[in-house]
Amino acid sequence: MTTSATQTAASRNQTDKEQLTVMGAGLVGSLLSLYLARHGHRIQVFERRPDPRQAGAAAGRSINLALSDRGWRALEGIGIAEAVREVAIPMYGRVMHDAQGNLSYQPYGQPGQGIYSVSRGGLNRRLLDLAEAEPNIQLNFGQQCLEVDLREQQLHLRDSATGEEKHLGYQRLFGTDGAFSAVRSSMQRTDRFDYSQSYLEYGYKELTIASAADGTWQLEKHALHIWPRGRYMMIALPNLDGTFTCTLFFPFEGDESFAALRTPGQVQAFFERVFPDAVPLMPELIDDFFGNPTSSLVTVKCFPWVHEDDVVLLGDAAHAIVPFYGQGMNAGFEDCTVLDELLNAHAGDWGKVFQEFQRLRKPNADAVADLAVYNFVEMRDKVADPRFLLQKKIESKIAAQYPDQWLPLYSQVTFSHRPYAEAWANGQRQDAIMSRLMARIQSEEDYDRPEVQQLVQQEMAQVPA
Amino acid sequence: MTTSATQTAASRNQTDKEQLTVMGAGLVGSLLSLYLARHGHRIQVFERRPDPRQAGAAAGRSINLALSDRGWRALEGIGIAEAVREVAIPMYGRVMHDAQGNLSYQPYGQPGQGIYSVSRGGLNRRLLDLAEAEPNIQLNFGQQCLEVDLREQQLHLRDSATGEEKHLGYQRLFGTDGAFSAVRSSMQRTDRFDYSQSYLEYGYKELTIASAADGTWQLEKHALHIWPRGRYMMIALPNLDGTFTCTLFFPFEGDESFAALRTPGQVQAFFERVFPDAVPLMPELIDDFFGNPTSSLVTVKCFPWVHEDDVVLLGDAAHAIVPFYGQGMNAGFEDCTVLDELLNAHAGDWGKVFQEFQRLRKPNADAVADLAVYNFVEMRDKVADPRFLLQKKIESKIAAQYPDQWLPLYSQVTFSHRPYAEAWANGQRQDAIMSRLMARIQSEEDYDRPEVQQLVQQEMAQVPA
């Protein structure tokens, strides 16, 4: 899909080869560096944190992410998809756990389609190993960006170990330094820079479901588990070692909230009441709950993403979203794919590449931000509603009957490369159709009734293929 | 209206008297200092710019602002309303100038009600003189706030003249440092701080209408002049010296835009075509146009406005708005009135004062931000529409007929102290009523037709007194 830049005529031009600066060596920054190196440039990468591959670097908790098709495509572009797939666990659907411990199942897509639980740290380390092996990429850890002087094209860096500060020029700067980006923070102070950061009233906390004594999984391994409870929820994704990493999404304040659970006894009683089937699997619950941080959930939007033809933001630095669609990393990886395609098309014309990048990506970043909030409501509340599950079954029937006209929203987002903005618009049209149909449907069997089928045909006559 | 704190029992308590720090000595900061001093506190004021009263300080262009009832009330509270009124020019209505130079007039309120053109610099200097005369207030100019360490309660200041930097502790900090507040910028980096800055695609530029040879005004002195042109507009407010300060609100980009007017010839031709009656009064047009900056128009919203019980934001630092309702300064001054009332009610309990302040003011700040954008459309576009002017006349008739139930939105905002949020909600209900009535009305006379009167009665039966 992605052709190496050396194959294009424009990029053979020696003047194209530049010294590029990437700020941030997280998932997006390290992947981006690999793409840029393929185009023949020399890359300096600066990262605030120490090298996560060094002994002594915080091993940390197991944090996993759901990798889906957009992410896989970006990994394929640098040839490491197969290696990552070997350490990824496919999840083919959601398992919902109700308050009595009863389970129900909802597949994510067609048989064989799934999202993949991968270790965030493991994936990052693998990308860094690849970057380190590239002669054109130089990694610099423990380098905090204090400020970017956009006019003078200078970074102000501080060495975390020595405290030493230095100023360093750049020709072209790629800001992949995450939701609290220092590069973006400097751009925010320029005239006519639109910016918003907005927090949910929910926080999250990571907890653990232990493996069985024999190292196997105590819940269905190939699923994402959800304990939907209306105003809040817990989810769990499998790890390779037989554990699951759980995340509790929970209000900061109120009757049932982080603020209200202050003692081990309160936590234990609350979990036993609302997550009864999970508690026996969580021997470390109290230690995890009081030892792990409570983190906040922010959406960041900004524009422009570009400063002249010398700075561009990608990934969370440009568009941090809440995690409920599992698309944060995938959207950032898709940024790399899109930038790579633009570098192939307009090699050497950085102004054009950057302008096209933000023109193409900004509406999609806004859409996936909205999708992520939308899916929070679906996950914590609707998936516990029998009417909603019936609607999902009816929708599957429509999708099977009209495969060219109806791809469920979740599949558009997760299993296709359709632009997020288009998926979101389609999804809203589908929602409107479903709510008209569901007014006539009380059971799965109703779908085959002639008057319902007639209505379905009428609706589908309006839907383009 | 505002009682001196020395009259209240609580504030006589010596422990209440504190060293307070005000960051920013603009209009709101200097007024706030005067209020705080009345409560017996000692105030340190820091201001980035040099003292505007010093010789050598940029005399600058004449910039004027429209002072209305909320602003007057705040000035009355410190006893300088009468002195300011002597150098303010009342404007009793709008004079609209069409593209042929024809004029039409629309009063702002009842006879005698007006908004007042005052010199921004003059008012600021007067407030500073008063502050300087207070033994409890110490003014420090040329002190730029680089950062606030919220945890350590320390300011990081730089002396603009010497470049010297210092760290200074504070007990309680009032951020009145404007739309680009350094205090807010430090708060923005704390967890769960919601923030947005959003720019209009319009900029503005100040221009001048000269006085007549005898020093008198070449346009009606007691009016705000508008040249509404649909997508853009020019306005003019009178100055004491016979000149008017004009402001052109104009798109940054496009066919008719700042970007498109690049030569003196282009500017001259454009102005002669669209503002034909103004051009002969603007001998400095070309010099002004190319000499004065093109400024941008930002709306800033944030929350919380308070950090624990030791930092609070007021004025533009908390809620910068676009200037189209003439309420930016008035809203900031009303912040001082509200804070003063809370200090009377809860003297000594700063946590309570600050929490109540943001609880009361945030919805009103959001409302006036929306009102300001709404009024831009009205001023640049609707006031040129005969149907809109007819609607305003009909609305005046309703207001006269139902004085207890109908105060026009403009009057609620400008000539009352009704909370902005309430005014805005009322205004939207009034808009809905007017659009239903106007569907039956083609002329002023139609208002008296029995079927229209019946409709008016029906509508008004729903409107609370």
UniProtKB/TrEMBL annotation, chains A, B:
<dbReference type="GO" id="GO:0019363">
    <property type="term" value="P:pyridine nucleotide biosynthetic process"/>
</dbReference>
<dbReference type="GO" id="GO:0071949">
    <property type="term" value="F:FAD binding"/>
</dbReference>
<dbReference type="GO" id="GO:0070189">
    <property type="term" value="P:kynurenine metabolic process"/>
</dbReference>
<keyword id="KW-0662">Pyridine nucleotide biosynthesis</keyword>
<dbReference type="GO" id="GO:0006569">
    <property type="term" value="P:L-tryptophan catabolic process"/>
</dbReference>
<dbReference type="InterPro" id="IPR036188">
    <property type="entry name" value="FAD/NAD-bd_sf"/>
</dbReference>
<dbReference type="GO" id="GO:0043420">
    <property type="term" value="P:anthranilate metabolic process"/>
</dbReference>
<dbReference type="Pfam" id="PF01494">
    <property type="entry name" value="FAD_binding_3"/>
</dbReference>
<comment type="similarity">
    <text>Belongs to the aromatic-ring hydroxylase family. KMO subfamily.</text>
</comment>
<feature type="transmembrane region" description="Helical">
    <location>
        <begin position="20"/>
        <end position="37"/>
    </location>
</feature>
<dbReference type="InterPro" id="IPR002938">
    <property type="entry name" value="FAD-bd"/>
</dbReference>
<feature type="domain" description="FAD-binding">
    <location>
        <begin position="307"/>
        <end position="352"/>
    </location>
</feature>
<feature type="domain" description="FAD-binding">
    <location>
        <begin position="21"/>
        <end position="189"/>
    </location>
</feature>
<keyword id="KW-0812">Transmembrane</keyword>
<keyword id="KW-0521">NADP</keyword>
<dbReference type="InterPro" id="IPR027545">
    <property type="entry name" value="Kynurenine_monooxygenase"/>
</dbReference>
<dbReference type="GO" id="GO:0019805">
    <property type="term" value="P:quinolinate biosynthetic process"/>
</dbReference>
<keyword id="KW-0472">Membrane</keyword>
<comment type="function">
    <text>Catalyzes the hydroxylation of L-kynurenine (L-Kyn) to form 3-hydroxy-L-kynurenine (L-3OHKyn). Required for synthesis of quinolinic acid.</text>
</comment>
<protein>
    <recommendedName>
        <fullName>Kynurenine 3-monooxygenase</fullName>
        <ecNumber>1.14.13.9</ecNumber>
    </recommendedName>
</protein>
<keyword id="KW-1133">Transmembrane helix</keyword>
<keyword id="KW-0503">Monooxygenase</keyword>
<keyword id="KW-0274">FAD</keyword>
<comment type="pathway">
    <text>Cofactor biosynthesis; NAD(+) biosynthesis; quinolinate from L-kynurenine: step 1/3.</text>
</comment>
<keyword id="KW-0285">Flavoprotein</keyword>
<keyword id="KW-0560">Oxidoreductase</keyword>
<dbReference type="GO" id="GO:0004502">
    <property type="term" value="F:kynurenine 3-monooxygenase activity"/>
</dbReference>
